[in-house]
Structure formats: structure tokens, C-alpha cells
Design brief:
By secondary structure, the protein is of the alpha+beta class. The protein has 2 domains: 38 residues, no CATH class; 133 residues, Nucleoside Triphosphate Pyrophosphohydrolase (Alpha-Beta Complex). It has 3 helices and 11 strands, in the order E-E-E-E-E-E-E-E-H-E-E-E-H-H. Strands 1, 2, 3 and 4 form a 4-stranded antiparallel sheet that branches. The two termini are 31 Å apart.
Length: 185
Amino acid sequence: MEKECIRRIRERLAYGESENPWVRLYFDDVMKPGGPGRYNRVVEGGDGTGPGVVIVPVTTSQRIVFVRVFRYPVSRWLTELPRGFGEPGLDGASNASKELLEETGLRSESVALLGRIYPNTGLLATEVQVFRADAVAEASAKPCLSECISEVLFLSREQIERCIRQGDIADGITLSALSMCWLSG
């Protein structure tokens, strides 16, 4: 069994809690194999929140539901799977169903956990649970305009692969969740 390679000596909160309920930045003092050092890490979510969620919604016609969303950090419109922070008091499946409804206006007959991803293990202390939502009905789709979502898209696998090749689906969480879904059958 492998043991920890880097051990935290002192946790130093540099930003968070009072400034921003969704993100905390730490500059930790650590002990590495070569001696003392410093490690930076970002923790997403506030106190009491669970892991984030991403949903792979599959319609009755085997299309996958995406949203067109403007992402301020990269200044681009991207095609992504619905996702969000874990809300306190809700389990992962309930959070996934809530995000699907909020971002797309859609509901699912069943939601199943596919696994977990860690989007950037070199900096982020973030866990995202990946869910598949089956039997999503296409008729009631409605984008959440307050979240900068311009439209809800229903894409076939061929269309998804084209969007990936063209760089329109470029978000790491979406790409990872799609891979997990396709590998699970």
C-alpha cells in the first residue's frame, strides 16, 4: 500500500469563508520527501456542501442532453453537460436531479451513479459525482437564462463526436463524464 508523499504541517487559509461561500484558497505548509515546502490548493463548495455533480441525461431516443453555457473564466460559449455544486442536505442523486431540472427544465425517471472524477488533482480539492439520468423526455426543455445558458441541445453520439473534434465540447468534466457513460454501456 502506498503512503502519503506530502504531509500537511499547517493549513493556511488565504481566501474564502467570509469573502466567497463557494471557493476557498489555501497556501499550506507541507513536508515533502525533499524537505519543507508550500502547496497551494483550491477547495470548491462551502461548508456542509457535498461533492459537485454532473449529469449525463439520456433521452428515450438515446440522445444526450447538453446546455450551451457562457463560461466567464475562459470567455467562451461551450456545450456542456448539466452540472453544479452539491447542495447541503441533499444526496448526490437528488442534487443531480435538481441540477437537471434547474438548467434544462427536464426530469428523469431514474438517476444512477456512474462514479467520481477529480477535475484537476494538482490544484483542486474537488470531487464531482457522475450520474446518468435515463428516460429524459425532450418535450419540456427550457434553458435557465439566469445561469447564462442559451439553449438546451439533444445530440446524437455522432454530433457529440463532431463537437468534440471542433472544440465546442472542451470542458474536462463533460469529457470525463461522457467517457464514463460510454464505458458503462
